[in-house]
Amino acid sequence: MVRQISCVAFSEDHEVMYAGTTTGDFAVVVTKDRKMRRTITACRSGVLSLVVWGSYVLVGGGDGTVSLFDGTLVRQAHV
């Protein structure tokens, strides 16, 4: 599957890149080996913004939602 990247954010140590897509998910990429480890569905519309805050990832969706994922990338909150 080909994904169009709409935004990116890096972990504080720059070892992980999170890439939001136009299909509403975000990819987790380990920068050292440039391998995509997994994708996580975040919203029904495209991901417009990503913020890494400590061990959390905040995702802003084109459908107006904001989701908070913890360090294991499990959704903790959805507004």
Show the helix and strand layout:
Layout (H helix, E strand, L loop, with lengths): L4 E6 L5 E6 L3 E6 L4 E7 L5 E7 L2 E6 L4 E4 L5 E4 L1
Antiparallel strand pairs: 1-2, 2-3, 3-4, 5-6, 6-7, 7-8
Protein described:
The protein is built from no helices and eight strands. It is mainly β and 79 residues long. The strands form two sheets. It has a four-stranded antiparallel sheet, with no helix packed on it. The chain is globular, with a radius of gyration of 11 Å. The mean pLDDT is 93.
Which key terms come to mind for this protein?
4-stranded antiparallel beta sheet, 0% helix, 79 residues, mainly beta, single chain
In short:
It contains no helices and eight strands.
Number of helices: 0
Principal-axis shape: globular
Instruction: Give start-end ranges of low-pLDDT stretches.
Output: none
Strand content: over 45%
Largest sheet: 4 strands, antiparallel
